[in-house]
Design goal:
It comes from Salvia divinorum. This is Proteasome assembly chaperone 4-like. The protein is globular, with a radius of gyration of 14 Å. It is built from two helices and seven strands. It has a seven-stranded mixed sheet with strand order 1-2-3-4-7-5-6, with helices on one face. It has 132 residues and is of the alpha+beta class.
Length: 132
């Protein structure tokens, strides 16, 4: 079951696009997503079981090596749930990414399911880089 709500805020050239949706994961956990698309950046919130903010990561592409720099802005260093998602989102989109992740610690299957559903939505919204 998927519910999606998308709103364009502002004008087309520099507007903000907000997309919210929820989907069942493979393990029957309801995942909630919010994507805010800015001009050269996306903000993503992923959560389940509650609307808590969770850990916050910032990730960006580095030049000229095309590597990705990721840092934790809020949250402990012992729980890196979302760190890998933020890194891979930069690789897929080429954009700066701010990711808030409220997923249970030590549940890699749920994290992988959330990332898969998020990437499917980003592709459908046209936020990913063309594959060469």
């Amino acid at each position: 079951m998927e519910e999606t709500k998308t709103e364009n805020i502002g004008c087309q050239s520099d507007g903000v696009q907000l997309t919210c949706f929820s989907e069942q994961s493979d393990g029957d956990v309801l995942l909630h997503f919010q994507i805010i698309r800015l001009q050269k950046q996306i903000y993503v919130w992923i959560g389940c079981n509650s609307a808590s903010f969770g850990h916050l990561y910032a990730a960006l592409p580095t030049r000229p090596s095309n590597a990705v720099g990721v840092t934790s802005l809020i949250g402990g260093s012992s729980d890196n749930t979302g760190f890998g998602i933020a890194r891979r989102l930069v690789l897929k989109t080429g954009l700066n990414v701010v990711l808030a992740c409220n997923l249970p610690k030590n549940n890699p299957m749920l994290e992988a399911s959330a990332e898969k559903k998020l990437l499917q939505k980003l592709i459908s919204l046209g936020y990913t880089k063309p594959q060469i």
